[in-house]
Amino acid sequence: MEEKYTWRPIFKELSRKLLDYRDHQDELLNMGSKALHNANMKDFSDLHMIDPFTFFGAFMRSGAVPNRLHILRDIKDEMGLVSEMPTDLAGLPTLNPMQAWFCFPGSTVEEITNFWNLFEDTFNLDLTDEESRSRFISDYHKIYTMKGIHSRITSGLFWVRPDLLWPSSSIDPFSLINFDPFYLCFAH
Predict the structure, then answer these.
(1) For 58-92, how does the pLDDT look when each residue is reduced to its tens digit (9 = 90+)?
(2) From residue 32, how far is each of 36, 41, 56, 78, 92 by CA, in Å?
């Protein structure tokens, strides 16, 4: 029987490694562009800043799994990740290729910063720590107020913490502004 969810170790390692690129976004843009170019896909050449969710979105677009794994392999090699390459991407939400980027050429520094803050808060989230929860909730709400993000951010949160959060494309993102986002998560 084929093993499933083999992507979890490399996604965790990639999430941890991406935090090192917060202040080195030019390197992240170059690395992502190279991997996308090798797969004959639109690269990040239009961007001058990048957030980690957009970086993940590069290979989490809907499409053939072998193509997505090819991009991930290039990223793994370029970053020096040591986790085994996954043999599947079972259970992972994908994005519409036309909406795979969270940031755009016109994104502001504040918007990119908000994405990085939420990414870091998500990676370090501890449900037993009130300060950690509060920081996550605050940054989560900032992202939800951004035009065009809507519920796809829940997919991005899942990529970072599949052990704690899950994606939901059927929830009205505007109704979540008034709710605690932990309504959408669970702890093992």
Answers:
(1) 889 877 889 999 999 999 999 999 999 999 999 99
(2) 6, 11, 9, 9, 20
